[in-house]
Amino acid sequence: EAITIQELANRMAERAVDIIKFLMKQGEMHTINDVIDADTAQLVAEEMGHKVKRVSESDVVEGLSGDTDAPEQLKARPPVVTIMGHVDHGKTSLLDALRKTNVVSGEAGGITQHIGAYQVETPNGIVTFIDTPGHEAFTSMRARGAKATDIVVLVVAADDGVMPQTVEAINHARAADVPIIVAINKIDKPAANPVRVRNELLKYEIVVESMGGDTLEVEVSALKGTNLDKLLDVILLQSEVLDLKANPDREAGGMVVEAQLDKGRGPVATVLVQRGTLKLGDIFVAGSAWGRVRALVNDKGVQVKEASPSTPVEVLGLNSAPEAGDQFDVVPNEARAREVTEYRERKRRETRGAASARSSLEQMMSAIKEGATEFPILVKADVQGSAEAIVQALEKIGNAEIKARVIHYAVGGINESDIGLAEASKAVVLGFNVRASSQARDAAERAGIEIRYYNIIYDLVDDIKQAMAGKLAPEL
Ligand code: GDP
User: Fold this and answer.
1) Whose CA is nearest to atom 19 of ligand 1?
2) What residues does GTP bind to (predicted)?
């Protein structure tokens, strides 16, 4: 934990200059906005005749975004949607086409800007789209603890059917516990075969409505603009079922969707407000950056005074650029902002420095001891037959308390996307007769994900059994 000299002075009701003088005597030169560590702060406080009550680390950061809202404070908010699916199935085309359906009359500006997310207004309600298709963005945000998406629209090209990245997308959505709406795209094509798509989806336990299931579906053509209004209606229907709510009358918090250093405007971040209302002049932290809201620009390029829940908005006034997926929170004052960012910066350094894997079998064993009930695993194998045999064997392991859960399996080498999913789901990655790409290895190293390689199914299954039983042979 760390604290600014100003904040320490405030808490002790002393003058900051006296603290600075005291520290100077100790040979430390500081200014009023400097952050000092907890031990130093304690020393200062005691020397100045104060009783010290150390608060826990979490006091610094938690409580910023706690769910402390009473039910009657909650109001309906628009759904936040991510579009996923196989490459070339039309994700980008669909995002572009949906953006164009936005015919909001009387709005100044009116030309949509790419800010990382946008809203579509329909007669039945507003929908927010995350403007980065695919599961990389989705997963990297989730890996950082952000729940950015309420609904996944799974795009499947009617002329191509379910493909490997379709399956990945399904598993990403499932792992995040986000409902899927199926958009069967390219129905304008002569080769379109939506029935085949529906049948193929069955294999992944997605049963669409027209087949008696409860997954909502729409046939669309992003190219011709067919049924886009229907897709929007279905999204809003799903959203009603989810009963999405937030309290608009509190200090704002949410997530960074995109950030960059703009030549003219300095650090700019697009944030998705998830609770509260963000206003001009608010002081906020975003990851390890902080600032005071100097201007808010919406997805139509229009300056606005405030942004309510589920609204994406560009924020100007940061001291540096945060990262996509970073949490942002409005705080009461600058001192607090410095305190929080300093704390986060330190945390970040610590986790980077920590050599211990965050999702290793060892880690998993201790999680089990602490009461975890599921053991997430990602399997990549050289052939479909082996992959299926492994999954079957793994799913049989477990007892009433703990079960192995295969969050994703596929044929092929271990790639970066696998690591992203493993990181987001805290899973271990098992490779059977396959290796990881060098990018995947680097990503795993950075994220602290353990990759284990096997060439005998028995060994693989046995290791997992041992880990679940709390004993594990050292890694070879
Ligand atoms: P992404 O990789 O999933 O983002 O796919 P794109 O949006 O880039 O689309 C891939 C290709 O499919 C492009 O050439 C699009 O023009 C085409 N495409 C997308 N949607 C449709 C559609 O509804 N009908 C037809 N005929 N082509 C489409």
Assistant:
1) 90
2) 85-92, 131-135, 185-188
Q: pLDDT (tens digit, 0 to 9) for every residue of the chain, 476 residues total? A: 678 888 888 888 788 888 888 888 888 888 888 888 888 888 888 888 877 766 544 444 444 545 567 888 899 999 999 999 999 999 999 999 999 887 554 444 456 678 999 999 999 999 999 988 777 777 777 766 667 899 999 999 999 999 988 998 998 898 888 999 999 999 999 999 999 999 999 999 999 999 999 999 999 999 999 999 999 999 999 999 999 999 999 999 999 998 888 888 889 999 999 999 999 999 999 988 999 999 999 998 899 999 999 999 999 999 998 988 888 899 988 888 888 888 777 766 665 544 444 567 776 776 666 667 788 899 999 988 899 899 989 988 877 677 888 989 999 999 988 998 888 888 899 999 999 999 999 989 888 888 999 999 988 998 888 887 765 554 44
Closest CA to 219 of 211, 227, 229: 227
Pocket test residue of 83, 88, 226, 231 for ligand 1, highest count of atoms within 8 A of CB: 88
Measured CA to CA, the distance from residue 376 to residue 360 in angstroms comes to: 11
For residue 15, report the distance from its CA to the centre of ligand 1, in Å.
64
Dihedral in degrees, nearest 10, Cα atoms 296, 300, 80, 147: -40
The residue whose CA is least distant from atom 2 of ligand 1 is: 88
Residues in contact with ligand 1 by the CB-under-6-Å rule are: 85, 87-93, 133, 185-186, 188-189, 221-223
Residues 176 and 142: beta-carbon distance below 8 Å: yes
Instruction: List, in sequence order, every residue forming a beta bridge with 474; answer none if it has no partner.
Output: none
Ligand 1 centroid to residue 225 C-alpha, Å: 12
Q: Which residues are annotated as a binding site?
A: 85-92, 131-135, 185-188
| Ligand 1 mean position, distance from CA 232 (Å) | 19
Beta strand ranges found along 64-164 (DSSP E): 75-76, 80-85, 117-122, 125-130, 151-157
CB-facing half-sphere around the CA of 93: CA atoms within 13 A: 19
Distance of CA 223 from the midpoint of ligand 1 (Å): 7
Annotated binding-site members for GTP: 85-92, 131-135, 185-188
Q: Which residue has the tokens 């800010």?
A: 115
